[in-house]
UniProtKB/TrEMBL annotation, chains A, B:
SUPFAM superfamilies for the chain: Putative DNA-binding domain (SSF46955)
InterPro entries: DNA-bd_dom_put_sf (IPR009061), MerR-type_HTH_dom (IPR000551), MerR_fam (IPR047057), Tscrpt_reg_MerR_DNA-bd (IPR015358)
The name this protein goes by in its record: Helix-turn-helix domain-containing protein
Species annotation: Rhizobium sophorae
CDD domains: HTH_CadR-PbrR-like (cd04785)
Keyword terms, alphabetized: DNA-binding, Transcription, Transcription regulation
Start and end residues of each HTH merR-type domain: 3-72
UniProt keyword Transcription, yes or no: yes
Amino acid sequence: MKKITIGEAARRSGVKVPTVRYYESIGLLAAPSRSEGNQRSFEPADINRLAFIRHARELGFEIEAIRTLLTLQDDPHQSCASADAIAKARLVEVEQRIRSLTALKAELETMVEGCGHGRVDQCRVIEVLADHGQCTHPHH
Amino acid sequence: MKKITIGEAARRSGVKVPTVRYYESIGLLAAPSRSEGNQRSFEPADINRLAFIRHARELGFEIEAIRTLLTLQDDPHQSCASADAIAKARLVEVEQRIRSLTALKAELETMVEGCGHGRVDQCRVIEVLADHGQCTHPHH
DNA sequence: CCTACATCCTCTAGCGACTAGAGGTGCAAG
DNA sequence: CTTGCACCTCTAGTCGCTAGAGGATGTAGG
């Protein structure tokens, strides 16, 4: 058995060292065995689990959603309906967020374009912020 | 002078009561005068300021950016270059975020579509999460 | 074997922008 | 006068880490 230190686990999974310890502390990752000198010694499976978590985090899944996804992964004979539901919910969130950010972008563009680069009292950025009624797009 | 209570200030500005107190505590809003019984009494100008803050927050500006925007608003003879720069920076952020979310959306769609609604060991959602190499889009 | 240095350990506190709750006071209507 | 809501302050919690203190371990070179 080659021992994988936390540093190497971090490098291989792309999760930072303190974050690995954090995941262990919240029970997302099982506590690994320890060396004589009390240092963590990870298994290859832990690296996979960390990579899974990292990827899910990059996709914006919350820790609790990931916890559910991981329990599903741990028991591959279950129905994947929950995984499907979680992913679908996340998709809806992302679509909503894109819509709202797109409206926002239009708003910001109007602000920036309208700015005459003069003094504040003619500045459209400040003006639009002060008066919501000037919003051209129903972003909120 | 009609006194505006914190509750009415909240209703009129769309900022929640505890959040109004929070803004005061971090110096975003000047501490208002108090009634005999130590209750806050706001001016109409405070409502405008709160509405400004709320709108800026909805547009995703950070508190420190809003602090700068507010000092600009307080002195309308200044150049609006800073306001312009802040808005432009925010626009760049928003555009970046939209791009990344759009890639994410494609990823999630692939996951959800591929899901045969069977057991976990055939589930594409879990599979893709476990193996970053299966990502079709360079979202991260 | 000793030293230097990177890496590891635990623990606590901090980030942003609030939000929730405890425990108490003020105020207007019935 | 009492009911009941709105107000007050203060502390602690949220999420997902991140930073730092202060110390122990592991490894490579001399």
